[in-house]
Every structure is written in structure tokens, then in C-alpha cells.
Predict the 3D structure of the following.
Amino acid sequence: MKTQNISAQIFHDSPSDLGHRAKWWTGRIAVYGVLLIWALVCLFPIYWTLTTSFKMAPDVMKGHMIPWVDFTPKWLGWKSLGLSPDTLGDDNTVRAEFVKRFTNSAIVSVVSSILAVILGSLAAYGLSRFSYKFAWMRNGDISFFFLSQLILPPVVLALPMLVLYKELALLDTRIGLILLYTLSVLPIVIWIMRDQFSSIPTEVEEAALVDGLSIWGAFITIIVPIALPGMVAAFILSLVLTWNEYFFAALLTSTHANTLPVMVASQTGSQGISWWSMAALAWAAIVPLIIIGVVLERYIIKGMAAGAVK
Amino acid sequence: MRAASLVGKAGLRLSNSGDLLHVVTNDNISSGRQGFGRAIIWGSALLMLSVGLSQLVQVIGWGAFGFQNWRPTLYAYVLWAVCLCWGQVLLHGEHGKRTLFVLPAALFVISLTVFPLLFGLVIAFSDWNLSSPTGRQFNGLNNVRQMWADPFFWNAMGNMVWYVLAIIVEYAVAFGLALALNADIRARKFFRVAFLLPLMLSPVAVSWMIGKSMLEARFGPLARLGRALGWDDPSFFGSPWIAKATIMLMDAWTFIPFMMIMILAGLQAIPKELHEAAKVDGANGWRAFWEVTFPMMLPVSITAILIRIIFKLKLADIVIAVTSGGPGGATDTVTSFIFREYRDRSNVGYGTLLAMVYLVVIVIAMTLLMKLADRMTRPRT
């Protein structure tokens, strides 16, 4: 009798609770289902490109997907780029071309992002701390002037810039691209940094000023270190945008200052190009960004969320 | 004395608009320093004018100075800009140093947008084939007439409307994903990184990876999938509407993460108590979403959609790289159309006019949208 009492459950799940649990489980499954499907949608093209760069023609045509299971990886695509292990040592014109484009892209995007972060941070700091009056424009108007540049479609500037650059001998130079790229990301930097600076209380600088620093001294030694995460976020976001930019690069460069996207696009156009080498090129063009995305994801999200929540 | 007047000014400012940061410094600006400041500003301006004018004279053909290009004027302009910034500090002391925060960015933006835009207005009303030796010829309103009769331009404008409308669907998907990410899940970091990646990839590479290889009609994995699902002839760029939808999907693939992250940031800013209160009041999931979450998310949603529209209006890379506007202009965007117009005929004048018209349309449409958004987010009284 005693044993019976012990084995009998004292607390029973009422039928309504059981229903609740079933509902909870379906909810879980739905959420994870959605997440997994979308993760597949996001990652499959990247996976497909990477595997295709190791395939040979029959593998592509038969639609083989999984390396070592239904096809044996070959260095074919990377060999045509001159980046496979056995060709890495010798001279290779395609690789030289690729490295040149890669360097161009790297220089242009890094320099223009740094420039944009410097100019944008200064402007955003000024606008968040002092009241200005240039002619009829007050702070609100100046901010709007900067942010309205975001609306300006690149195509409006493209053709006048083409003619101007031709006259200024800036066509097909890195400097020309850097200037335009800085301009195109500046509004975004100002947007992010304005948010950053207005979240720093002015007492911080007031204390520094009382201690005898000048405004610029206080800005550089005190404010910049505090706002550094925001600046990194703005920098990374600019880097991504400028690295990927194609339109201006296609119009304004021809041989010297071509960036990587232009090279990728010009290869896509030609029909004779083989899939594996194209896949290798595309993969090589996106790999820096995948690394940045995985390592610095925190900053990118911070940058993009800056304007969202006030 | 100068300091006293500054204090007076600062006090005055405090009462109406007001600096957030008050700095009162003892500025004793000697008249020599002021004179020097004025001298460098006006001197460099004069230098810029004289260089510019002499270059103009050479271009018109009244004299030869041996200029190869307009670089000297550019250098003179840069010198003037530097002198202007420096002169602010010399002339106004502490106030000049404040101006120095905004002035470089303002000069930069003005010289790279306002000047080309004015120049573009001149080009827009001329016939200018860059490869022909005749150079620029003013042709009045001919470009406008040509535009009016150009079916491809209006077709591209119409396409833009469809592309922008596709944002509604993108928004719904992004909201759903943000809700899923905001749920109590494991491996959140993995999902966030995976979802973010499409945004990081260059559109040109994406257009090869997806548009040219995965959607390839014979061997592409998506074409295979289509065949397996019973689509006999999976051509993704064959008929106009399917091609348009494919471009929309590819663009959505890249930009959904952007909206998703903004919405996710908004979702995480909603206080937990609100959901608990809704639960106590007996609202189940669906009603709690429509009556608590969605209204709370309205301002963030509108910001995200507006920014997304701005980006969408610049859509070109994918179209240029995948379809170059085809079939029959069904996937053309205004930008890709102008790009081809220039590439095929190297006519700068007509393309610029189209771009200018596009800009005017965009500015009007965005202003209306912002007004509307402002009215929607304003709390009802």
C-alpha cells in the first residue's frame, strides 16, 4: 500500500498543460525550421561556388554536390587563376592581373573608408555639440544636407564626373575612385557617428576642458577612444560597401585602376570562360568579406542598428 | 574685451538655440593675425581664380599657356580649401576651431556633388558624344523630346515601380526572420552570421554565383530543382515577368539581412514587460503581435523601408551583370539603362538628362514618402 502511494504521481499535468507543451514544441520546430531553411538559402550559393571551383566539366554537368563523395576535387579552377599549390611558385599573367585588381580594391576601399570615417566623425561631432549657422543653414539643415546625399543616385553623378575626371586627368586613377567612394559612404558614416556622439554625455568634455584641454585636444584624447567602437562599425560598413562597388568602377576605370568587381564582371560577360575558373575568381573576390563578416559581425550589426533605435 | 563679448554671445546662445557644449576661452586675436588670415583666404582665392581664368582662356583659344589638363585649377582649389579652413582658426579663434569640425566635410561634399550637378545641368541640354571630335553642342530641348518619345526609358521607370513594390514582400520576410532570431534559440550567433553573409558579398560576384551558375538552365542546381518539381523548361530569364521576379529575388537575397538587422535591433529594444503585460491581459501570440509588437515596431519599420527604398532605387549591378536589361528591357532599371545608353553610344548628354529627370522624380517621391511616414509615426492625439 505504501509502495503504491510512492509510485503514484502526486502532481499531474492537467490536459491543458499538455496541450500547451505540444504547442510549445510545434512553435520550436517552426522557428528552427524557418531558421535552418533560411540559413541554407544564405549559405548554399557560397558552398556551391566553393565546390564548383574544384570541379571538372563532367562534375558540373552531372550536378555533383559533395566533394569526395560524388566527385574528386581537382585544382582546375584555381590553376587557371594561378593560385593552386603547384602553380603558386611560377609567374602567371592571370594571377598578376588578379593580384593587381585585388590590391586596387584593397587600397581604394581602405583609404576611402578611412577618409570617410575621419571627415564624417569630425562633422558628426561638431553637429552634435555646437550650434552652427552658415548663411541660412542651421544644424538641422546641415545634417539634412549631409544625409540627403544618401538619396542621390550614383547615376546622376556618374556622367558629369566622367567628363570632369577626363578634363582633370583623374580618369582611371585610384584617387578619382577614392574621392567618389568617400562621398558615397560619407552620409552613412555621419548617420552612425552622430548617434554615437550624442550618446556620450557632454560632461565628459566639460571635465576635460576644465582640466585645460582645448576642444580638439578633448576630442582626440577623450572622445575618440570612447567612440571608437562606433568608428570601427562605420569603418567596416564603409569597407564592405566600397569593396563591392561596381557602377563607378566600371564607368571610370579602364586598365590601371580597375577593381576586383570589374574584373569579375568582365569575365562573366565572356562566353568561353569555364565554370571552375569563374567560380574560383568569384570565390576569391568574396572571401575577404566572408572573413570580415564572420570575425567582425558584431560591429556590422552595431553599425546597421545605429539608426534604427533611438 | 573680446572674451567679454564672447561670454555675452555664449549667454545669448544658451537662451535660444544653444550649444550643447559651452566653451568660453580668452581669445585675443591680434589685428596682424586677422590680417594674415584674410590675406591667405583671399590670396588663395585670387590664385584659384587667375589659374582657372587663364585655363578658360586657353580652352576658348585666346591664348596658350601650355596647360595639359585642368589639374592646376584643381590644385589651386585644394589650396584655397585648405587656406579657408586655416583662415577660420586665424580669424575667429575658438569659434573657428569649432567650424573646423564641419567645414572639411561640407567643402568635400559640396565640391563633389553640387559642382558636378551644376555641370550636369549644362551637359543635360547638349548633344555630346565623347568619342566624336565635334565636342559638346548645345541642342536645347532636343534631349527632352527624345526622352519623351523613348519607350525604353519609361519602361525602365515602370520597372522601378515594380522593384520598389517588391520591398513589401522583402519586409515581411525580414520581419519573420527577425522574429525567429529574436525567439529563445540556441546557436543564435551562427544564425546571425549566416543570415548576414549575403549582404557582405559583392553584387557582381553574386550575379555570377546565383544568376549565371545556379540559375543556369541546363546544369544549375536550381534549374535541376525546378525540373524535379515538374517545371519542364526552367529558364529563369526567358519570359519578361519571370526574369523580373528572378532579379527581384536575387536583390532580395542580398538585402533582406539589412532590413532584418534593423528590425531585430528594434525588437530587442522593446521592453519585456510589455509582452508580459499583454500576456496577463490574455492576448495570445497572434494578437500580441498585431496589437503590441507591430505597433511598437512601426517607427523602426518605416526607417528600414525608407532606407531600403533608397538603396533599391540605385539597383544596377545585378541587372548589368546578369541580364543587361533583357529580355526586351523587362529587367531594366533606370541606372542600368543609362549605363548601357552610355556604353553603346557614348552619348553623355542624353544620359545625363535622363539621370537628372530621375533625380527630380526621386526627390519628389522621397519627400512625399517621408511626409507620409512622418504622419504615420506621429502619435495620435
User: Anything to note?
Assistant: Residues 18-81 of chain A form one domain. The longest strand of chain A covers residues 133-134. The mean pLDDT of chain A is 84.
